[in-house]
Amino acid sequence: MARLSLDIVVLVSALASLTSAVPLARADCDKTTLSKAADAYVAAQTAGSIAALQDSFASNWTYQENNKVIDHQKGVLHKSLKIDHRRTNYDLVQCATYTELISASGPYTLATQIRHASDGKVTSIDTIAATTNSWIFNASKTLEYVKQEKWDPIPKEKQDSREAIQAAGDAYMDMWSDAHAHEKVPWGTPCVRLEGSAYTGKGQPDDSCQPGIPSNHSQAPNTHRRYVIDQEMGSVSIFCVWEHMMMAADSHEFRLENGKLRYVHTMTECGGKTCRL
Ligand SMILES: *[C@@H]1O[C@H](CO)[C@@H](O)[C@H](O)[C@H]1NC(C)=O
Ligand SMILES: *[C@@H]1O[C@H](CO)[C@@H](O)[C@H](O)[C@H]1NC(C)=O
Ligand SMILES: *[C@@H]1O[C@H](CO)[C@@H](O)[C@H](O)[C@H]1NC(C)=O
């Protein structure tokens, strides 16, 4: 018994030193640093040049597009696009952002996760770039729907925990391969899904995100998930490999309000081919 309590004391003091060390290691991960880089990213995408980002990069930064690490020079980042819509979410714990961009004339819808080192420098830009032939793609239509939505910041006292937000997203992503996953999704009403340019529900009070959810739970899972979680937005961005549809590069973003699913946005690209189930 005495030994046990000693072990607990050791454990507690180890934990205490660990928690006090965390803020120091993350000193440069503040919203200003993250938003500066996200703004530079949007400026770079608008210009079709990474010049605006140059000061933000760590020397070892990598560029990933549609789930493949590629030379950034060959990526969509070097195409000048007129940006019609932009929203950025902030993850101050992981030191990362998620940005949703729509360019009707591109035409492109872009989902981008940017990750930072503890010194604030950008270590990776990870983009899912949907365009003609992507799943239910029509950037103009997506833009029209996005403009009707409200993604207001959620007041502190009404925010869900990071764990609850991530669990909701994961449960949803598990529905293709787990027969019980849908029971764990905190379905809300109203709730709307924007999948490519397909809108399920028009925001009416009784609209639900449940029509058409997977009934076959024996499909390949959604793997290689990468997360950006923003409690103030109630959101989690999840990038993955959509294995059951041509191993597509997929972005799913979920917003919770009062613990319930409110919005789902998706962008899915099938290696330059026409996406088919
Ligand atoms: C990349 O550089 C940053 C410093 O800017 C460093 O913190 C990080 O560990 C490096 N990553 C790798 C994989 O070397
Ligand atoms: C995209 O949707 C708009 C309506 O928002 C429509 O006018 C246009 O024809 C559609 N484009 C294609 C290629 O289907
Ligand atoms: C469910 O998906 C699996 C994997 O694609 C497929 O083999 C099976 O035939 C599907 N089942 C039904 C009932 O469609």
From TrEMBL:
Keywords: Signal. Residues 1-21 form the signal peptide. InterPro entries: DUF8021. It comes from the Eukaryota. Residues 158-268 form the DUF8021 domain. It holds the Pfam family DUF8021. Residues 202-221 are annotated as: Disordered. This is DUF8021 domain-containing protein. The lineage of its organism: Eukaryota, Fungi, Dikarya, Ascomycota, Pezizomycotina.
